Amino acid sequence: MFVLLALAFCLDTSVLGPLSLVRIHDTFDSTFIQQFARGRLFLEYGPHSWNPLSTGGSPAFADLFTEYGIVNLLSQFVPVWLLNAAQRLLFVAVAGWGTFRLLRERLETSLPAAALGACLFMFTAQYQVVGRSFEYVFPMFFVWSLDLFNAALPLRRRAFCLAGMLLFYGISFVVITLPCFSVAHLGLVLGLGPRVRTRAHIAGVFALWTGYVLVFIPAMASLLAYIPLAQRVYSPAGYSGFWDAAGHFLRIFGHKSLINPALLLVALALPALLRRRFAGLALAFIIPPGLIATVFQGRFSQWLQNSFLAKMDLSNADFLVPLGYALALPLALDALLEGGRKCWWALAAAGAALAALYGLHEATGEEVLLSVAFLAAGLCLVRLCGRGAGTRSRPAAAGLALALAAAAMVAFSVQRLNLPHAMYGKFFGNHASLERLAGEANSAPFRVGCVDLPVSVPLSYGLESAEHRGVLINKYYKQLFGRLVGPQLATPEKREYFRTYGYDLKLTPLPRPGDATVPPFRAANWNPELLRLFNIRYLVSFKPIEGIEAYADLRDASPNRPPVPLLRGTPVERFSTMPLWVYEVRDVLPRGWLAGSAVTLPEPEQVLEALAGADRATLADTAFLAAGDAPAGLGLPAPGQASGPAGTVRISAYSPDRIVFEGQAERPGVLLVSNNFDEHWKALVDGAPEQVFRADHAFQGVHIARPGPFRAELTYSNPLIWRLHWISLAGALLVLLAGRIGSQGPPPGVPLQLRPDSPCPLAGESAPGLGATLALGLAAGAAWDAYFIIAYGKPWEYSLNAYHCLFFPTAGIITALWVRQLLRRLAAAGRPGLD
Fold first, then answer.
1. In this structure, what is the dihedral angle of CA atoms 725, 729, 735, 737, given to the nearest 10 degrees?
2. For residue 663, pLDDT beyond 90
3. DSSP state, 110?
């Protein structure tokens, strides 16, 4: 049944294909397209150790995912939009099914309460951040781990569970998954009582997660080695006193731990809930993760500046909070269903006031509506299933269908309206101008800059980008990039915001608190000389750039082809295509060139200032070095003391781990390469080893000691990372053996049947008829469309509005039908489960 409900939220991506909306923010701009591009590199060049695709390059394993990840490789054979649709359906269905099994089999909740808790977690899984994938699948992962530890189950079923767990491991991001969910897994085992809390099961959990660490040990070792280069810094806390800090802390904690659709219902039953078994376990998933996330999310993280946590990010600890509410909601609902205990309606009113307060300041109106819808659904279930409920419960059943239909539409809309979405085929595909640039890049590497356009758009064609969406950015590159976008950072507040903002690096002006909107389409936003130094040959924009003719020429201005050929010439074509303006920056420095002079400055900050003020000729002929970076015996003249060019260079071979330069040096000089410096880059000049040193603050330099023809081969190699793959094999073996380790003790119990004290089954006539259910769904959909039109404008003036007005009600209607079927199943007395 949960697969059918998941289709309510995935109908558009399943039916429309490349015409469906996809989430750009935190999904396609930071994950899916990067995985696709990395997978293409892996198939083209085989195993490699350097990733050249963004921000000057970085070690290939210092990332959230490996080069040979499941999605990376599948995306080479399956369209990315189809992978997105399949993964989305998987996440939502597994979130519901796994939560239902966890609640029903392990927390001993009644069947109606477990069903509503599963719906809650399914609906919160609509945010669809790929980096949060393990959050959605964790309940199923936990349940399957207990099945794996149960030697009484058939071997085929245990093997299926292990295969599913391995799939979840494969699509997870180790640095996000490991700190939160390994602890959560152990916490559930310890908190679920003696049937689960056995030595064998604890040993099995340690085997699973130790094996996970070992499997990803190459990535973890690379990330640890990358810490000195990480760009994350903290801004000063700047509190005026204790109460200012306390107020800030409480505001963030409230947003992290209190904004949830189950808040009102949990508050309603809180006194009775606290008396129930497992209430402490549910609250342990809400309060401690919220506190940890608050410390790392707010300005309190500055207190960690000099600690071992300085480069860590545990702000994702609040990923456990939705599961905590999914556990608390059924326990609270059972307290209401069983009756006999006083519920504090005043507390519910306080909860409503609190939710309204946060709705005004932290949450959206839709999120507050979602809480009200779940409160209504819970109260309808109490009327239907609670003690003393009669057989004439059709109004309550209709109310339940209406409330969950409304909740489905609101949940669907929250992630669609509050976060950037776009038609897949409009952004990713059929851009002839980018296809031509990709062909040009095969002969000589260059970088592309995006102007108010997701970095993932050119990246989807394999083009190297000067920007990045994510946290793993080389700090030296970012510092130099700050000079490139220096015209946008005119005040100390803006410079400090750029310095401490840890997630994006892009040419488009960042929105800053208190700022008016900064026009992104202006040539004056960038230092043109540094555009040339960064090897940014092309600027790509979806609008014309004002004043760009000063240093760049228009190369192309045309829309892409429609994702579906049948749309050509139809009104839909206008909404499914996007024009791109491609500008070619004049006199861009190549990826590698010869400089005949050098200047050594005492401090890196002085190097940055000198680079920001230099013209193109000076940048081309001078290597700017900090005192600690200059190699011994360089002996080059100062700028202006030598006449004529230092020589010519061309690239004769280019791959992620290897670049070969051939050229003619007119005099001794420095081969400057605009890739990020890393200690694992080595150079051979005419077959003899030569030092690779930091030059131009972020980039690479190699001394060319003699005039005449030369051949310089730069290679990147970190043998330790590849040796660690032997440990990965040991980790995979340990994961495979975890089932045997965890099954040495008694089995972790069997799924529960309806308990003797469970609420009475529903009467058969409680479920509304098919016609009434459709009418309810249509009414809810019409009401939501009316709200949407009032709140967001006329639906047909913009294609996305029409799209929303079609699919939001569809989700509501399918959910209403699902509720009808749920009630019919609940009416079947003694049925043990829905899975």
1. -160
2. yes
3. -
Tokens 């977690």 identify what position? Answer: 121
User: Is the distance from CB of 327 to CB of 219 less than 8 angstroms?
Assistant: no
Strands 669-673 and 699-704: antiparallel
CA distances from 769 to 45, 764, 774, 819, 820 (A): 60, 11, 9, 11, 8
Neighbours of 332 (CB within 10 A): 29
| Of residues 664, 659, 670, the one with CA closest to residue 701 | 670
DSSP letter at 31 equals I
Q: How far apart are CA 677 and CA 699, in angstroms?
A: 5
Q: Strand, coil or helix: what is 668?
A: coil
* Reported confidence tier of residue 797, pLDDT bands at 50, 70, 90: very low
Phi-psi sector, 597: left (phi>0), alpha (psi -120 to 50), beta: beta
Evaluate whether 255 touches 358 at the Cβ level (below 8 Å): yes
**Mean pLDDT of all residues in 717-726:** 93
Higher pLDDT: 744 or 746? It is 744
540 or 427: which carries more pLDDT confidence?
540
Stronger pLDDT, 377 or 365, i.e. the higher one: 377
Question: Which residues lie below 8 Å from residue 812, measured CB to CB, with a gap of 6+?
Answer: 405, 406, 408, 409, 777, 780, 781, 784
**Strand residues in 300-446 grouped as ranges (E):** 421-423
Query: Which secondary-structure segment (H or E) carries 319?
Result: none
Question: Distance between CA 578 and CA 507 in Å, rounded?
Answer: 20
From residue 633, give the alpha-carbon distance in Å to each of 10, 601, 668, 705, 749.
Answer: 64, 16, 12, 10, 73
pTM: 0.90
Distance CA(821)–CA(775), nearest Å, equals 15
- Give the type of residue at 630: A
Going by pLDDT thresholds of 50, 70 and 90, the confidence category of residue 181 is very high
**226 touches 337 (CB < 8 A):** no
* Mean model confidence pLDDT for the chain: 83
Is there a contact between 226 and 62 (Cβ–Cβ < 8 Å)?
yes
Asked if the model's pLDDT at residue 237 lies above 70, the reply is no
Residue 334, pLDDT > 80, answer yes
Is residue 404 within 8 Å of residue 821, measured between CB atoms? no
Mean pLDDT value of segment 391-396: 67
- For residues 611-615, average pLDDT: 94
> Which neighbouring-strand residues pair with 673?
592, 700
Count of C-beta atoms within a 10 Å radius of residue 602: 10
- List C-alpha distances in Å: 528 to 87, 505, 507, 673: 42, 17, 12, 19
The predicted model gives 396-424 an average pLDDT of 79
Distance of CA 776 to the CA centre of its chain: 36
Give CA–CA dist 321/180, Å, rounded: 11
Residue 256 has pLDDT above 70, yes or no: yes
pLDDT at 704 over 90: yes
pLDDT for 751 beyond 60: no
pLDDT exceeds 50 at position 755: no
Give the per-residue pLDDT at 535: 96
Q: Which residues contact 492 (CB under 8 A, 6 or more apart)?
A: none
Given this model, what pLDDT does residue 796 score? 46
Phi and psi (nearest 5°) for 61? -90, -5
Instruction: Determine whether 788 is exposed, middle or buried from the number of CB atoms within 10 Å of its CB (0-12, 13-18, 19+).
Output: buried
Q: Work out whether strand 579-585 and strand 552-559 pair parallel, antiparallel, or are unpaired.
A: antiparallel
Query: What is the residue whose two structure tokens read 């790509």?
Result: 540
Report how far residue 738's alpha carbon sits from residue 729's, in angstroms, rounded to the nearest whole number. 14
86 vs 492: CA distance, rounded Å: 46
Place of tokens 């469906």: 20
Q: How far apart are CA 694 and CA 29, in angstroms?
A: 30
Q: What is the CA radius of gyration of the chain?
A: 29
